[in-house]
Design a protein that fits this description.
By secondary structure, this protein is mainly α. It has one domain. It is built from five helices and no strands. It comes from Actinomadura luzonensis. InterPro entries: DUF6789.
Length: 159
Amino acid sequence: MVRNLLRGAAGGAVATAVMSLVMVAGSRTGLMPDQPPKRIARAALPGHRHRPKPGEGVAGALAHFGFGMTAGSLYGLLTRGRRIPAPVGVGYALAIWVSSYQGWVPKLGILPPAAEDRPGRQAVMVAGHLAYGLTLATVLNRLSTRAAKRTGHEDTTSA
């Protein structure tokens, strides 16, 4: 169980890095003027929840990686070290997007619900979550394959 948790955290870190690249590209193309993790950190830091604050970019990046690693750990526990088809990881990531951008983020007044938000931001965030899910599944499947080869218990489940 601990091994699956740690593998999931590692996969979540790699997947969050890939997702962050998608988000930075979205920002640079003008589709997303500011990053949701920064907006979430801004709301959590003391002071007015919608005014820029010192350190919110760093706090947002740390929170984003923490959230991504936690979600990866949960995925690692749910998959129990087995190779799982990549579309399952993508579905898992899209479920995170829905629960976040149609759920707790708008309920806390940080951003509007996805359907009412800037279309560009939501396109970037969906693409980012697709990248997260695909990367998470790929990394964990590779770690599972390596572990199976070391122990001699090859899993033939498709990736």
